[in-house]
Specification:
- Pathway: Purine metabolism; urate degradation; (S)-allantoin from urate: step 1/3.
- Belongs to the uricase family.
- This is Uricase.
- Keywords: Oxidoreductase, Purine metabolism.
- It contains 5 helices and 12 strands.
- It has 2 domains: about 130 residues, Urate Oxidase (Roll), CATH 3.10.270; about 160 residues, Urate Oxidase (Roll).
- It is of the alpha+beta class.
- The strands form 3 sheets. It has an 8-stranded antiparallel β-sheet with strand order 1-2-3-6-7-8-9-12. The chain has a two-stranded antiparallel ribbon with strand order 4-5. Strands 10-11 form a two-stranded antiparallel ribbon.
- The longest helix is centred in the C-terminal third of the chain and has 18 residues.
- It binds uric acid.
């Protein structure tokens, strides 16, 4: 029996880069978390400790900082592609790069109205936005394969009506009561796969990764709000369908949506009725609904989901 090295990759995880751009007194910030993972001719380092083919993870981190200064950070997908191409194209021993970026949003702190104005300048004070995290994962391969997956996570949404759940299997362990009016709440994680390596490469794609992201996100929200839901599964499918209809450069959407259960509180002991007004928001356990929605002509996913 021989023992061999299996698949492997290495890199620097979670390099936090905050890039400030100054436009006179007005500052703009871009706050990202970069993880790179490289693979290639790495037998020697694993088998004998020969580091000749190893681009240190420390260097990968430094490259993220240096590129933020040199090129700035606009759309995270573009920045991830820049890094991935650099690692592979500059190092013959490195054949494949995976770069994952999360982006956190900040809002300006507005100057309050009132008599003591003038001390604070709203152009450089920020509060972390309650918004979701924007994500991307790109792969760049020496053999020419490039894939881009964009997405978001921690997008919390709730419909206070317009959701039913009934008609399900009832066996000897079922206690759930059917409902024709419940709260539907979830925290959306969605990743969508681009057909090509830029957001305008689709059949009728128009514009940048930024526009693609904004419209895909809006499609998710519109579908969640517009769908009269008979199950979270149905809502998930509709959300994916809307994204694919809105953005032709996207060929697959994968979603994970926890069902954040809201249970009606029994107020009878207190002599009160509860006509869908007071709920207990349970945090666990939760139903976890996951699924992929794709076009029937979606190209092979290749490395995209790795
Ligand atoms: O939308 C739902 N889908 C389910 O599969 C399920 N199961 C459950 O107990 N509640 C719900 N709700």
């Amino acid at each position: 029996m021989a023992i061999v090295l299996g698949p492997n990759r290495y890199g620097k995880a979670e390099t936090r880069v905050v890039r400030v751009v100054r436009e006179g007194g007005t500052h703009h910030i871009k706050d990202i978390n970069v993880s790179s993972a490289l693979s290639g001719d790495m037998e020697a380092v694993h088998l004998t400790g020969d580091n000749a083919n190893v681009l240190p993870t420390d260097t990968q981190k430094n490259t993220a900082y240096a590129f933020a200064k040199k090129y700035g950070v606009d759309e995270i997908e573009d920045f991830a592609l820049l890094l991935a191409r650099h690692f592979v194209d500059s190092q013959p021993a490195i054949h494949h790069a995976r770069v994952e970026i999360e982006e956190y949003f900040w809002d300006r702190i507005p100057v309050a109205e009132g008599p003591d104005l003038g001390l604070r300048d709203e152009q450089h004070s920020f509060v972390r936005s309650g918004r979701e995290v924007r994500t991307c994962v790109v792969h760049y391969d020496q053999d020419g394969g490039t894939s881009v997956v964009s997405g978001l996570k921690d997008l919390v949404v709730l419909n206070s009506t317009g959701s039913e759940f009934h008609g399900y299997i009832e066996d000897e362990y079922t206690t759930l009561k059917p409902t024709s009016d419940r709260i539907l709440a979830t925290e959306v994680s969605a990743q969508w796969r681009h057909r090509g390596d830029d957001s305008s490469s689709g059949r009728s794609g128009t514009g940048s990764f930024g526009r693609s992201y904004t419209e895909a996100r809006q499609a998710l929200l519109d579908a969640f709000a517009d769908t009269h839901s008979l199950s979270l599964q149905q809502t998930l499918y509709e959300m994916g369908r809307r994204v694919l209809n809105a953005r032709k450069e996207i060929c697959e959407v994968r979603m994970a949506m926890p069902n954040k259960h809201h249970f009606l509180v029994d107020l009878e002991p207190f002599g009160m009725d509860n006509d869908n007004e007071v709920f207990f928001a349970a945090d666990r356990p939760y139903g976890l609904i996951e699924g992929s929605v794709l076009t029937d002509d979606a190209p092979d996913a290749g490395y995209a989901w790795n």
